[in-house]
Amino acid sequence: MQSVKIGVLGLGTVGSGTVNVLRRNIKEITRRAGREIEITRAADRTMDKERGCDTTGIDLTTDAFEIVNDPNIHVVVELIGGTGIARDLVLKAIENGKHVVTANKALIALHGNELFKKAQENGVTVAFEAGVAGGIPIIKAMREGLSANRIEWLAGIINGTGNFILTEMRDKGRDFPEVLAEAQALGYAEADPTFDVEGIDAAHKLTIMASIAFGIPLQFDKAYTEGISQVSQEDVQYAAELGYIIKHLGISKKTEQGVELRVHPTLIPHRRLIANVDGVMNAVLVKGDAVGPTLYYGAGAGSDATASAVVADIVDVVRVLTTDPENRVPHLAFQADALVDTPILPITEVVTSYYLRIHTDDEPGVLADITRILAEQGISIEAILQKEPEDHNGIVPVIMLTQAVAEKNMDMAITHIEALKTVKDSVMRIRMESLG
């Protein structure tokens, strides 16, 4: 049987890893796919740079469109990144009747609805397992392994940079700016770390997972994002005293009112398995009505880990090359005509519990004023820590854990608390989830 010819767009970290993994495990992969898989062409920006893979026997070009227009290429693997030229190349490949494998979460989160529609019209597949959580097969698990379940919620540590920073802050008592600088030096964070530390990267991935979990169109523009740059060392310490660990989570829940889609720092009980996922590792917790909570853990980035998911997608595509397009696994788990336009809830309508850190004057009646304001908004207090004055300056940190309440009520309460003359700066608010 004729080998399946692959064209790779981009020979950076993931592209080189894909070549290496495919060549290293070619016998095993061929046994699984049923046909030989061969990378015959690859595109890269320049021809004279050192690469992390052996390109012997691969026809190299600087023009990626040569590959997507090559009639001998069966599958295009897009590993360029971004949403500009990558979108154009993927659309052209689909138009030319080629299957596409991509690790580009931004492309899928922002343009996936368009790409999947075009792919369906042209009878091809767009596979994107590597776009979410690196080597963890979370897309396949939710789309196929959990297809008997009504998924109730999911929560994930889906950005290794943020998780590394919070782990260092907790374990070594370091401050955010110092750990961020180290993450950049180690190559975990970019020179501009905004996508990682402000939750944008995680929101891309969460958008994809939520669509598969709940059968809704991709709606990245409605995701709420909040970063970790305001989390202080004292927050990490106080959370630990109360039995919690702070993680930067992507959370999506199906409620009667709609779907929650949010990324933010979150206090979770220290006894939860996901609370103990440290360093640059990723983990996703998915709750199905039949199976209960299931946890998926592994490397969320890196050359070989991400290449593992890319090559697995290639194998899946090869297996269905001769399959009736109408009988393939749907891109977003549900049949295209069965997606529902369930509203995405604004963050103000989300109901959750809260950690509050309030710096106040060390005076009688201050705590009574704060609890009165909370009570007026229907907010019940679960626990209180009142610490000693800081540096004998008369300022007292008051730490509160609340029971669940709508965010809009908490917003109103915080506005009134910050207006008190005895409150010295902005209230620090971190959401809490039990993940039970």
What does this structure look like?
- With 436 residues, this protein is an alpha/beta fold.
- The chain folds into 3 domains: 4-134 and 303-338, NAD(P)-binding Rossmann-like Domain (Rossmann fold); 138-299, Dihydrodipicolinate Reductase, domain 2 (2-Layer Sandwich), CATH 3.30.360; 348-432, Alpha-Beta Plaits, CATH 3.30.70.
- It has helices at residues 13-24, 26-33, 64-68, 85-95, 105-122, 138-145, 160-172, 176-185, 194-197, 200-214, 233-241, 303-319, 366-376, 407-418; strands at residues 4-9, 37-43, 59-61, 75-78, 99-102, 126-127, 151-157, 224-225, 244-254, 259-269, 281-288, 292-299, 351-361, 381-386, 395-402, 405-406, 428-432.
- Strands 7, 8, 9, 10, 11, 12, 13, 14, 15, 16 and 17 form an 11-stranded mixed β-sheet that branches. It has a 6-stranded parallel β-sheet with strand order 3-2-1-4-5-6, with helices on both faces.
- β9 (244-254) and β10 (259-269) form a beta hairpin.
- α2 (26-33) packs parallel to α12 (303-319) and α7 (160-172) crosses α8.
- The longest helix is centred in the first third of the chain and has 18 residues, at 105-122.
- The chain is elongated and about 85 Å long.
- The chain starts with a strand and ends with a strand.
- The model has no long low-confidence stretch (mean pLDDT 94).
Give the gist of this structure:
By secondary structure, this protein is of the alpha/beta class.
